[in-house]
Amino acid sequence: MDRILDYSSYAIALAALIPLLLFLLFLRPDPEAPVPYTVPPPPECHPDWKGEILDSPSLKVPGSSDIQCYCPATGASLGQITPATEADIDEAVMRAKEAQVEWAKTTLAQRRKVLRTMLKFVLENQEMIARAACLDSGKTRIDASFGEILVTAEKLKWTIDHGEQALKPERRPTNFLMMYKVNEVRWEPLGVVAACVSWKYFHNLLGPIISSLFAGNAIVLKGSESTAWSQRYFTSIAQSALRACGHPSSLIQPLTCWPTTANHLTSHPGIAHLTFIGSRPVAHAVAASAAKALTPLCLELGGKDAALVLDDLPASDLPRVVSILLRGTFQAAGQNCIGIERIIALPRIYPQLLAQLTPRVRALRPGSALDSPPDHSIDVGACVSAAGFDRLEELIAEAVSQGARLLAGGTRLAHPRWPRGHYFAPTLLADVTPEMRIARAELFAPVMLVLRAASLPAAIDIANGTPYALGASVFGSDPVALETVVRDVRAGMVAVNDFAVYYAVQLPFGGLKGSGYGRFAGEEGLRAVCNTKAVCRDRWPWAIKTAIPKPLDLPLGEERRAWEVARGVVELGYGDLRGRVGGLRRVVGL
Fold first, then answer.
1. What is the DSSP letter of 52?
2. 76, 216, 357, 507: which one has the fewest Cβ atoms less than 10 Å from its Cβ?
3. Annotated catalytic, 298?
4. Ramachandran region of residue 248, left (φ > 0), alpha (ψ -120 to 50) or beta?
């Protein structure tokens, strides 16, 4: 009977514990749960906003150093911004440095909480983020979704899920001589880093912020003057996430300035690392400036990316590939560093490819994504500037005079609804040859070039025949041929039977040759904004520690004997069995 009562007492106690266990398992507050917050959107993002249409849209304000912000799709003014001075840059670096001291002491869980908070905001405010991006860069809402919001969400999610593992100290192997040592590599905050990023994408702005914050750094961020208006809104998203989680927003210091002033930032001794996304000519000046302070660089400089279409591609797969080629070429009106700038097709597939590409390129409709009500039939947005249109028309006309066939577009477009917008007609140029200037120069425009290659080796030679080497794509079915392209094409990234998906999964992003050096994104990119610290410890400090053999102790007693011992140590550590035996004999003096 007593035993039954004991069992009953256990059962009652267990029943009382069940709610507590459930609470601990399922109801306990998540310390990394995102914090809700709001960021007031710019009034220009309201659907009913109508801005003043500028007579001659330009970044320059006559008689002033201010930056004129405007929508390149319509020419509507978005206001003016006073650019930062050298004194402003000094103050931004100082404020970032002050905030970073405490931020470096935060845990990775605290940093993850900030990123989770930011991700929640991005997912819940896609419409407003896309609208701001479209207003300031002229792109379509679909381009903003896939080219900006999706990859920003991916960067946040990857860092949340995998960032800690990437920064976890790693054990490294030892050797025979150092068998009593334990070796590791750590990744620690650098301090204040900087990024000078292009106007193309929202994620170009948020990406460096995400990596820098998670690594424990503060960041000074210089965005492009071409999208200075939207940068204020986008950086406030990240700054507000910090404040919502109880951290200083001064960890992020946004700046907008003219290139002449930016030199003060790129050579600033308070900057520990610099990421530059932009053109190759500007990169030369940035690298020379950064060299003054020996600041390490990551340079991403665009490309002339090739898409190779092989003859073994099944006819049934061609429509899918054509759709990918159209998206890869005309996304963001071709203003994409990893956009497809050359399609290189083998002889059998070449005419089939052109037959499907031509009517679809001719059917593309340029326009503003922000017409009210929204015009969902817009396929291609505006270019951010008309400054390169003269050069584009010249290159296209030159190529036609040398034998290329112009099948669509080829000139700037006076949009009937938005005559002040910067539009270039979606262009298809066939029979382009590698010797033409247009086949080697980065266009950064809604222009599709199709080249014919006589063989797979010839296609690879054409792909490698420019100063750039950023990304590439290959489409086909033969695994051997596909692997040959992956191996032999000189590029930092290759997508097989797809386009640019390496960026959607946070693989290291970057190129070589004229496309720059260094990597951002993924494990390599996160570690790049860290101090890589090597640490070596005694494995058994109570038993074995490094000691200098008597013959090698300074001042030396007998040089000949010291040499024999030094030689013996090398042989003992790195020789074969016979050499190690001989080395041991030298060390002990036998």
1. P
2. 507
3. no
4. beta
CATH number of 43-299+525-533: 3.40.605.10
Question: Strand order in 252-255's β-sheet?
Answer: 252-255, 218-222, 192-196, 274-277, 297-300, 516-517
At 178, the amino acid letter reads M
Per residue in 444-490, pLDDT (tens digit) is 999 999 999 999 999 999 999 999 999 999 999 999 999 999 999 99
Which of 44, 148, 225, 300 is flagged as catalytic?
300
End-to-end CA distance of the chain: give it in Å, rounded: 83
Active site residue 559: no
The C-alpha atoms of residue 567 and residue 549 are separated, in whole angstroms, by 13
d(CA 569, CA 17): 64
Q: Measure the CA–CA gap between 238 and 121, rounded to whole angstroms.
A: 10
Q: How confident is the model at residue 5 (pLDDT cuts 50, 70, 90)?
A: very low
Task: Judge whether 77 and 70 are in contact, CB under 8 Å.
Answer: yes
For the ranges 16-20, 239-243, 313-317, 372-376, the lowest mean pLDDT is seen at 372-376
For the record, the structure tokens of 364 come out as 């593309």
Count Cβ neighbours within 10 Å for each residue of 165-200 and write b for 16 or more, e otherwise: ebbeeeeeeeeeeeeeeebeeebebbbbbbbbbbbb
User: Is the pLDDT at 170 greater than 60, yes or no?
Assistant: yes
Cβ-Cβ contacts under 8 Å for 351 (sequence gap 6 or more): none
Give the chain's length.
590
The overall average pLDDT reported for the chain is 93
The letter for the amino acid at 102 is E
Q: Give the tokens for residue 478.
A: 């033969």
Q: pLDDT band at residue 372, thresholds of 50, 70 and 90?
A: low
Percent of the chain past pLDDT 90, that is, above it, reads 85
Annotated active-site residue in 337, 383, 530, 571: 337
Strand order in the sheet with 530-538: 170-172, 181-189, 530-538
Q: Which of 13-27, 207-221, 304-318 has the lowest mean pLDDT?
A: 13-27
Q: What DSSP line would sit under 371-402, residue for residue?
A: -SS--TT--B---S-STTHHHHHHHHHHHHHT
Task: Return d(Cα 552, Cα 564) in angstroms, integer.
Answer: 10
Parallel, antiparallel, or unpaired: how do β-strands 405-408 and 412-413 relate?
unpaired
> What Rg do the C-alpha atoms of the chain give, in angstroms?
30
Q: Say which CATH superfamily domain 306-512 falls into.
A: Aldehyde Dehydrogenase; Chain A, domain 2 (3.40.309.10)
DSSP state, 25? I
- Say if pTM beats, i.e. exceeds, 0.85: yes
